[in-house]
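Protein modeling request. Please complete all fields; requests missing the sequence field cannot be processed.
Requester role: graduate student
Desired output: 3D structure, token encoding
Chains: 1
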Amino acid sequence: MLRAAALGLVLLAMCLPPQAFAVGEPLHLTTGWEYRWGDSPFDEKGVPLWTQSLHQDDQWQSIGFPSNPPGRARQQNAWFRTTLPAGEWRDPVLYIFSVDLITEVYLDGQRIYHYGTFTPEGTGRFEGWPWHMISLPPDYAGKEIYFRIWSNYSDIGLWGEVKIMDRPDFYLYVLEQSLDRLVVSGFSLLIAVLALIFALVQENRRLFGSVGLFSLASGLMILAESQTAQLIMHAPLVWDFITAGSYYMLPVAMGLLFEHWFGDRFRRTIRSLWQFHLAYVLGALGLSAVGAINLSSTFPVFDALFVVTLSILTLIVVARFRNVEPLQRRAAIAFGIFGLLLIIDMAVAHGFLPWQRVPVTWGALAFSVLVVTIAFRQYYDTQKALRHLNLSLESKVFERTAALEKLADRERLRAKALAFENLKASILNDVVSELQDASSYTTAIAVLCHRLPELSHPIPGAFFQLEEDGKFHRLAEWGIDLERNDHLVFLPHVLDEAPKASPPPSVSRGMTASDQWHFPLSIQHAGRGSSIEGLLILLVSEVPVVDIQAFTASQLYHNIKGAIEKITVTLSGIRLMEEFQQLSYEDSLTGLKNRRLFDELMTHHSGVAQRMNSDLSVLIADIDHFKTFNDTWGHEAGDEALRQVAFALQDSFRDTDAVCRFGGEEFVIIMPGADLEHACQRAEDARQRISHIKILHGGRNLGGVTISFGVASWPRTQGTPKDLLALADKALYLAKQHGRNRVEVAEPSAPPVDTP
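Delivered output (756 residues):
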């Protein structure tokens, strides 16, 4: 009845104009959620006590979305609640994309929905991953709705979308979200049927069979995962078995395809991969079917194995990419896109990325279309080649013989060229190695000047460096005498990237630009991009016109150009390393960020808070009596205390908070988006945690230390966010005055003042 009514509503909605349902827009429930771990006790009437107003307590905690609360450990039971908003809906329903794993829903102390069966112990078993449509009573607005959840899966709670909408709009929404999947699924299944038929009647059975298997698996997977599948047959666990079986068969089909395309060198590896996955399909589905394991537990294991398989196949594709046909290259690119979409979809499924709809269906379709195109193209090319070969075999043999003779001549010349190129490559490798061993950029330039004559042999030339005065200064020359002869022509376009630079000192009166080669050295900098800092000029006209190991002038030019590019990259790395060492943002003792980064972050977050009128809190912490601790136990013990306090602070605040060492025993924390209450709570937690630390050093227990905090929040205080540091410092001074080992808050009306 439910399926018939749903399908009837869908058909009716498709016939009516959109205005017929324009009562209330769908509303996402994204705020006001709270959670608590464990399971509620029940009264004698079977009503959970946690849903009753007389049994409310402070154990409920806020959460952005009702999924995977912090501190799960080994918890398998959780409750979520929120207040339902008012809205203009005629037949309101609550739509949930999915729940991990079973749930009961309570409103006004009554159970209004359940999926799965809870045991008296509050556990259950996996029943599938359907969407949920929960009917709401007319007077639901302003009431709290409670979700009782059990899960032994890696995720616990609601997943995907949670929204209120009208029932007809819901069915339209399900149909709209599934339309592309139904189209892609039908097309994939059609491809599968055609490929399997071809596999039965053609000689190339393995290729067409692999294509058919992949299209069949992807088509069934897409159909089973579509939301309309639940309307077609309300059997979520059956659909999940179909999803799992087809999903788990994807690497088997991929392995068969890749064994056909790339199996010349990696056949054994690829075969082992798809055979292993085939065994996993049989084992996972078989054990799940007999109840030995839950089907849900097989997905995380498979996803981890699939990521490894995709990585190995990707490496194989990269290794063989240049040796396959253009169509197979396109299929390899499509495989890369499809694999990336699968990995993103896995990351969303396991909570590593925020929930979103990943277009895996289109990636599967693109890959299917390309591989079936390759299969038919290979079949067509094979038939065409056979016909052509039968007509012109003798002509081809003659042409091939002549081509082989020409190829042999070219190979002899190529062998000479390769010998010369290998020699240059060996010299270049030595030069790069010496540059990498240089202790500084200046030393590396000196090494380069020493090795350039050998690298550019037999062509004479000179090397110039652009100094701070904006002029090129000669550092080296070989094969020519610049003091006696003006041999070098300066080409102005060489320095287009550095318009302030002056040309080299020597300019020829009779030579042209074609007699010389110019190679600028463009060095990369951390803060200002790249700039030309050197110029190599080679005098080609001074080289006798001879065949240099079968190298043409163009080949020689590109060989030297490639060498200079590699040298430029190496020199840029040395220069960047020197600059990055000067711009380090990390405190070497504690591993926290230093004062330099704090200043930049404070400027940034202050501007954002004032511009967006958002909360911003700043905390200053100071270890109490640290000088006495240092004087008593020594500086090494003091360093150990600083490290342990720093670790406790880092672990006590959010990942989005910036914990910095301000200097000495003083620390500062920036908490963007945090109000005063949240900042004070974090500070108090950190204070208590640090007070329980025992400093161990040199095999001795040196006791503990305490810490004082000053807290200031904007817009709670007057002034601007930039004043928070001074206000927090004032609050810290009050904490010191009031006995230390405490958290003090800057007064809302207190202006920033200097403190001792």
